[in-house]
Amino acid sequence: MRRLCTLPLDDVLVAIRNQRGKMTITHEGEKVTVSLSASRRLKTYLKGTSCVHCGIEAHYFAVEQGPRWHLNLYHLKENGKEVMMTSDHIVPKAKGGTDGLHNRQPMCQPCNNLKADYDSVEQALENKKKKPKKAKLRRTANFFIKKLLRCEQVINKAYENLDNQGKEHAWSKILDQTIQRREEVLSQLEDGYRLPKVEIYEKMLEKIDSRKASI
Ligand SMILES: [Zn+2]
Which pTM does this prediction carry? Predict the structure, then answer.
C-alpha cells in the first residue's frame, strides 16, 4: 500500500464532522482527493478513535492508495509498529447485523480479528479457549496416563523380583524410585490438568482393559 503522508486526527475528524464530501491533500507536489461522505467506516471514528475493547488510541490518519486513495486510521506502538484501526460491526454481519452507523464501533485490527463473527472479543476468546483446550487436555492426559501405565508395569515387576537373591537391593531401589515417579506424574495430572485421581485411575483401568482385550 502506497502512502502519501499522514494527517493529524483533528484535521480529518473536523472535515468528516462538517460533512465535507471530500478532502484534497497536497504533499510534496502530489495532489490527491479522498472521499469522506460515503464512508461509514470513517464516520465511525466520530464516535471515538480508540479501540472499544483494548483501549489503544489512534494517533493519526494516513493517506493511502489501494487501489483508490483513501484514509486509514492508525495507532503507533512504542516499538514503532503501526496498528490499523477498523470500523467493527457491533452485531456481526454474519448474524444479521446491519451496515448502518449505529451498528459500528471503532476497534483495532487485532481485536477485530479476534472478535471475527462473535458478539464480543470476550465471547470469541471464550470459544477459542474451549475447543483446543479440550483436545489438548485429552492428548496430554493420555500422554501422562501412558507414563503411569509404564510405572505400574515396573512396580509390578519390582514386587515380583523383590526376593530375587542378590538383586533384592536393586529391585527395592527401583520400586522406591518408580513409586515416587508415579506420585510425581499423578500430581502433574492433578495440578496441571485438574484431573482428579479417581478419573485418572478410571482412564488407566480402561486402557488396561482395552489392552487385555486386544491380546
Ligand atoms: Zn484493540
Answer: 0.61
